[in-house]
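Dear colleague,

Thank you for sharing your sequence with our group. We've completed the structure prediction you requested, and as agreed, I am returning the results in plain text so they can be pasted directly into your records. Please verify that the sequence below matches your submission; if there's any discrepancy, let me know and we will rerun it promptly.
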Amino acid sequence: MESSSQTPETRRAVRNTILSAIVGTAVEWYDFYLYATAAATLFNKLFFPSFDHLVGTLLAFASFAIGFFVRPLGSVFFGRMGDRIGRKKVLIITLLLMGGSTTLMGLLPTYAMVGIWAPILLTVLRALQGLGSGAEYAGAVLMVVEHAPPGRRGLYGAMPYMGVALGLLMSLATFNLSSHLSQDAFEEWGWRIPFLLSAVVVALGMLLRSTLKESPIFEDLKRRKAVVKAPIREVFRTSLRPILCAWGARLGDNSLAYIYESFVIVYVVQQLHMARSTIVTALMFSTAAQFLTVPLFGWLSDKVGRKPVYMGGAILSGLAIFPFFKLLQTQDLVWIYAGLFLVSSVAKTMMTSAQSPWLAEMFPSRIRYTGFSLAREVTSPISGGIAPMIAVGLLSIGDGSPHLVSIYVVVLAVITAFSVFMGPETVNRDLRDGAAADEANTAAVEGGPKIYPAPSSRP
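Please find the predicted structure tokens below.
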């Protein structure tokens, strides 16, 4: 098995890697959630003003979805680079691409200034965001997992997701503070402030990532001259079943994240006629709680396995969605907070916390970046990308009733639970490729703790 001994220098490298992963992931999701929040509340007025309110909102969400449609392209391009030139270099490139696009959004002219060029430029920058994001999270998790000691890969591998919570929290906080300006001032220039602030977080992320050491497992690949020239082809040749299971699993947790944290704003404001600040504050509470629940469920996946935690979150999401909307409809703050905590801080987080180490352990090291990126991002267009649009459309068909949205969530939860059930359990896999890992796995199966088949074997 992998060596569990760690020198002080190694422990320091692990801490720095975790911090860098959290900050970099925070940049990614600050950008995405900021855009999602603006799309739900503001961009329909500034960039699509010639349409009625609902159609303008749908168009704003359509521009939001563009970023998800290019994410698979980013996963292919940057995932391959990550397996060829290293994790660290790719993470620096994707951070600059994402953060730079967001900063430039804060400088964009509106429709009133340049007409049709405003939504075109917005969509182009959104696409560049998505291109960088196609491999950002995969690289952040891999750097942590490949530095982590055995038995703690679930805990450490889940921690980059705290950056997702941090990014959402920062986007909600900055957007909420800016919206305290007068309505005219906010729509004229105040909305730009959160986008421009992305440059500050990017600078911090660049400082941290420039000091990182490359993954020891990738360094071992280079030393053994085992870096592959065609990792994409190798993924589909050796790991077809795992990647198919991962695609099915991603349908639920990716869609639910945007339903609970983006579409819910539209529902509460437009259907329940509550103040936007009320639901934003509640989202900030449920997001802050994830700083506790993310490591908790990552740790739990080390104890009981990745699959039970992942499936548990999917099942809970399906069971909780009808009560969740009932709690929102009470318009009572206590029940709204409780509902968001259940679906976002617990159910969704169970899935995402177990997902990170599960995907990282699923593929051999020589194709791990490509496999993780493809597994996570190929379904993005039909899950996270259009999930808010589908939910808004179902809400419109249902004359404002959330029942069709709830059924949609249940279907996604069932698909996710079944896909995870059909996938491999990976909790004790050796992350190395080659004879050393095969021997360690064989010895463990014959006389020690259970180790599952090496990820390089054919499905």
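Summary note from our side: The chain has one domain: 8-447.

Kind regards,
the structure core
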